[in-house]
C-alpha cells in the first residue's frame, strides 16, 4: 500500500489493504431499483433535445471543437462542447462526464481516432450547466432535492447524460443506431462525480458499448457515510447526522448497487489512497460489475504524488487499448486516440493537498 506524507486529520487509505478493497461489496438493491431507473430512462429518451451547435471555438489534432446546447428533462437547457472530426465521417462516439465542480473547457483526450464526442455540463455544474435554483457548489449540489428519490438532483444529472447521448446522435446521425443492430455503440468516460453518474446511467441504456469509470464516487453509500473525507461525501455525512432517514433515498443512487446491473465492458481506475472519494466506495463499484471488467489500481486519487505522470500515461494507454478492443473494429493495434485534443483545466495541487471537491482541482484524469 502506498504511504504519502499529508496533513489530513484522517487516513485517506482508511486502513484497507488491496485485498480488502477487492472484497468490498455492493449494498443490496431496493426491490424496485431497476424499475425506478428504467422509468427515469424511458422519460429521458422521450425528450426532444433540440441540440444546437455553436460557432467553432477551436481546431486541433484533427478535430473541430464547437459549443453545443441541448434540452434535458424538465425543460432544462444545458451546454457543453462537441468535438467532430475535421475530415470524414465519425466512426465512434463518446459521451464524456465531468467531476464535481463541472468543467470550464473540454477534455479529456479521445480514446479512438475518427471519433465524435459530446462533453455536457450537467445541471448546476460548470460554466455551461448553470440553472436557476440549482446550487453550483458541490457541497450544496449533492444535497439538492435529497428529500425524495423523485426530486434528488443526482437523478436529473444522470438524465442529463442520457439526453446528451440523444443530442449526439441527432447531431452526428452516422452514429445513431436506427434499425441496424450492428451500428456503432457509444463509449462513456467519467471520473469521480462523472464516474458515479456513469455507473448509475449505463445499465439501462443500450446505446452504449463500453465505459471507463475513474475514481468513481457514490459507491456503497452505507459505508461512505462512515468514512470522513474532504469531498461531497462529507456534506452527505453532515446531512445524514440530522436526517438519518436519507439513507432510504440514497439506496437508489448507489453507484455500486447500479454496477451490479452493468453488463457493458468497463474499465475502472480505482485509487488506494484518496481524501475526496474514499477508496472502499471506488472498489465497491468495480467489484460489483456484472459484465467484463478491467481494473487499473492507482496509487492515489484527488492528490498529487510522485509517479502521477507515469500512471496517467499508463491509464491513457490502457484506455486506448480497451476501447480499441471493444469499440474500435478495424483500428490497428486497438486504436490510438489523438493526444491532447482538448486541454482541460489542470488544477493540480501541491503535494499533501486535496482537491476541493470530487472532480475539481484534479489529480489523475483531466477534465474534472
Search tags:
17% strand; 9-stranded mixed sheet; 368 residues; alpha/beta; 11 helices; 28% helix; 9 strands
Please explain how this structure is put together.
- By secondary structure, this protein is an alpha/beta fold.
- It is built from eleven helices and nine strands.
- The chain has helices at 18-21, 33-45, 138-141, 153-171, 193-201, 221-224, 232-242, 246-250, 255-259, 279-288, 308-327, and strands at residues 52-60, 63-71, 77-85, 92-96, 115-120, 186-191, 208-214, 266-271, 293-298.
- It has a nine-stranded mixed β-sheet, sandwiched between helices.
- Strand 1 and strand 2 (63-71) form a beta hairpin.
The gist of it:
The chain is of the alpha/beta class and 368 residues long. Helices cover 28% and strands 17% of the residues. The protein contains 11 helices and 9 strands.
What's the structural blueprint in terms of helices and strands?
Blueprint (H helix, E strand, L loop, with lengths): L17 H4 L11 H13 L6 E9 L2 E9 L5 E9 L6 E5 L18 E6 L17 H4 L11 H19 L14 E6 L1 H9 L6 E7 L6 H4 L7 H11 L3 H5 L4 H5 L6 E6 L7 H10 L4 E6 L9 H20 L41
Parallel strand pairs: 4-5, 4-6, 6-7, 7-8, 8-9
Antiparallel strand pairs: 1-2, 2-3, 3-5
Helix pairs in contact: 2-4, 4-5
Amino acid at each position: 500500500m502506498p504511504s504519502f506524507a499529508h496533513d489530513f486529520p484522517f487516513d485517506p487509505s482508511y486502513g484497507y489493504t488491496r485485498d480488502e478493497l477487492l472484497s468490498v461489496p455492493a449494498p443490496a438493491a431496493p426491490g424496485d431499483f431497476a424499475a425506478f431507473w428504467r422509468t427515469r430512462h424511458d422519460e429521458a429518451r422521450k425528450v426532444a433535445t433540440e441540440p444546437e451547435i455553436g460557432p467553432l471555438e477551436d481546431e486541433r489534432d484533427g478535430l473541430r471543437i464547437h459549443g453545443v446546447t441541448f434540452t434535458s428533462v424538465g425543460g432544462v437547457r444545458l451546454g457543453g462542447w462537441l468535438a467532430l472530426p475535421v475530415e470524414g465521417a465519425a466512426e465512434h462516439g463518446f459521451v464524456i462526464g465531468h467531476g464535481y465542480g463541472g468543467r470550464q473547457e473540454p477534455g479529456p483526450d479521445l480514446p479512438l481516432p475518427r471519433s465524435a464526442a459530446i462533453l455536457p455540463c450537467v445541471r448546476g455544474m460548470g460554466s455551461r450547466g448553470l440553472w436557476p435554483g440549482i446550487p453550483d457548489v458541490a457541497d450544496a449540489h449533492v444535497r439538492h432535492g435529497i428529500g425524495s428519490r423523485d426530486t434528488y438532483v443526482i437523478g436529473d444529472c444522470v438524465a442529463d447524460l442520457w439526453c446528451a447521448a440523444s443530442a449526439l446522435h441527432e447531431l452526428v446521425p452516422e452514429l445513431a443506431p436506427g434499425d441496424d443492430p450492428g451500428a456503432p455503440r457509444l463509449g462513456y468516460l467519467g471520473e469521480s462525480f462523472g464516474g458515479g453518474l456513469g455507473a448509475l446511467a449505463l445499465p439501462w441504456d443500450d446505446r452504449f458499448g463500453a465505459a471507463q469509470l475513474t475514481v468513481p464516487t457514490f459507491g456503497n453509500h452505507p459505508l461512505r457515510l462512515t468514512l470522513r473525507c474532504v469531498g461531497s461525501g462529507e456534506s452527505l455525512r453532515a446531512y445524514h447526522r440530522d436526517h438519518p432517514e436519507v439513507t432510504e433515498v440514497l439506496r437508489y443512487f448507489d453507484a455500486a448497487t447500479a454496477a451490479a446491473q452493468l453488463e457493458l465492458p468497463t474499465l475502472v481506475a480505482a485509487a488506494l489512497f484518496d481524501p475526496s472519494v474514499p477508496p472502499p466506495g471506488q472498489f465497491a463499484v468495480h467489484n460489483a460489475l456484472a459484465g467484463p471488467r478491467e481494473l487499473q489500481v492507482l496509487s492515489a486519487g484527488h492528490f498529487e504524488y510522485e509517479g502521477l505522470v507515469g500512471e496517467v500515461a499508463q491509464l491513457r494507454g490502457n484506455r486506448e487499448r480497451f476501447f480499441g478492443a471493444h469499440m474500435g473494429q478495424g483500428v490497428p493495434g486497438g486504436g490510438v486516440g489523438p493526444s491532447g485534443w482538448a486541454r482541460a483545466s489542470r488544477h493540480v495541487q501541491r503535494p499533501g493537498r486535496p482537491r476541493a471537491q470530487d472532480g475539481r482541482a484534479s489529480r489523475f484524469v483531466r477534465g474534472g
